[in-house]
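Lecture 7 notes: from sequence to structure.

We start with a single chain of 312 residues. Read the sequence below before looking at the structure.
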Amino acid sequence: MKQILKNRLLIFLGLLVFYAIIQILLSTNILNDVLMGINVILAVSLNLINGFTGQFSLGHAGFMSIGAYTSAIITYKLGLPFPLALLVGGISAGIAGILIGIPSLRLKGDYLAITTLGFGEIIRVIFLNTEYVGGASGLSGIPKYTNWTWVFWIAVITVVLIKNFINSSYGRCCVAIREDETAAESMGINTTYYKTLAFTIGAFFAGIGGALYAHNFYIIQPETFNFMKSFDILTMVVLGGLGSITGSILSAIFLTFVYALLQDYAALRMVIYAILLIIVMLFRPEGLMGTKEFSLKKLFKKGEKSSEFTVN
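Now the structure, written as tokens:
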């Protein structure tokens, strides 16, 4: 018990130090980007669906756009508080996850990927043809409420909640479905229920990520949330490791810096993404971290065997 408390205190102190370093870099204009925190939220939430539950979803940009537009309407059009906009943006995306998830999660593999991809495009076209939210021009003049403090602590909350979900009996059922859905069903696990649950949680946090995104850039357009956005998030998950929260965090931070360095060369950025994926698939197909997680026990105790699904 004392060791667990010590480990958690070390993690908390590490988080505070990381928060302070980034805050100093932002204050001194050495770093001018809070996108890495938003990308961490998006990558970890998609990893819950794709990595831990084994469902190949390509609709994360669609959930992100629902959260972005909903929160922007709440603050910009209705003048309500930002925390309420974040919550409602996440809930609206989560409800969309339930509505889409129940019928589509009976599908598997490529069929599910095509269905979720189609969902993302349908959402994009709906916003594209809705004059209330600006149509193709999008919404501009959205108040800038997003800052590093909001992004950092919401990212921490996202990681902690999803990690606890994965380590719960619900999360174990999701992992069992990923390993062998037929065997999980034969053991009495309601696979559709748990897949929909994981899909809804992932969509909820994608919606919150979208809300943070909208209030960081003043303007959102339907084209911002096209297929390439889903591909960006999927790249972070695959590069870090399907089934590793630590891998998603590291790859999200790394690819955000790559994005910032190459933002004036969009075409080159996609080439680099493709090359990275090819290299990973050739030399480490399970991703940088595989299904392993960061563990203080592994760090300080040599020779101790690690648990694949524990973040201490």
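Confidence is low (pLDDT under 50) at residues 305-312. Keep this in mind for problem set 3.
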